Amino acid sequence: MKNLVTRLAALTAGALVATGVGIGVPADAATQHDRAGTKSLAKVLAADGTKLDRNWEDFDILEQAVLAVLAAKPTSPVALLTDGSVRLTAFLPTDQAFRDLVGDLTGKRPGTEKKVVNKLLKLADVNTIEAVLLYHVVAGKTLTSPKVIKAAKKGTKLTTAQGGTVKVKDRKGNITLVDKDPDFANAVVILNGIDINRGNKQVGHAIDRVLLPIDL
To answer: What pLDDT shows up at residue 133?
Structure first.
């Protein structure tokens, strides 16, 4: 697991330097005539509070991860999620997705969200968590569900804020995200969790697994 942390941390540092994530958005996006709202995804996700609970289908653990990164690194590009003036699309792992990740890594799924968070913080340092979070964000683009479906039909590779790519595929009607780890199950977009914050520059889609930027 120490090797995982080291590899992800190194990957993150290189990607952020290479891509300049957080400095700006693509010129074409910036120059578009834009009437979209500026409510941030972070604000929407926090509307029901950030307290850990027994609902595995919301995003409390994701919020805790974002808060942990920003507390340690206030200038992290993860802060893009709090700036509604910046266009982005985020694929949002549910609490259950994080629970399944811990299970995949340790062989045991914790019984509470708090235990999942504690285990994640033991398994990974802040740089590792930052890398994983940024791998879920497509900066500069507002990809509502019709656009995601269109991308899936074409097998499009989306470049993430982490610097790596995620391939979007249509598999028997399921929108599947293919990450860099071939061993764990690929994430699938949850149909009752699409287009979160639609009408704004930032939009999110719930997914049932955590995306990984390297082959573990």
So the answer is: 98
Prediction pTM value: 0.85
In this structure, what token pair is assigned to residue 44? 């929407």
Name the pairing type of β-strands 202-207 and 88-93: parallel
What is the pLDDT averaged over residues 128-137? Answer: 97
- The pLDDT mean for the chain works out to 87
Q: How confident is the model at residue 32 (pLDDT cuts 50, 70, 90)?
A: very low
- Residue 125 dihedral angles phi and psi, to the nearest 5°: -85, 180
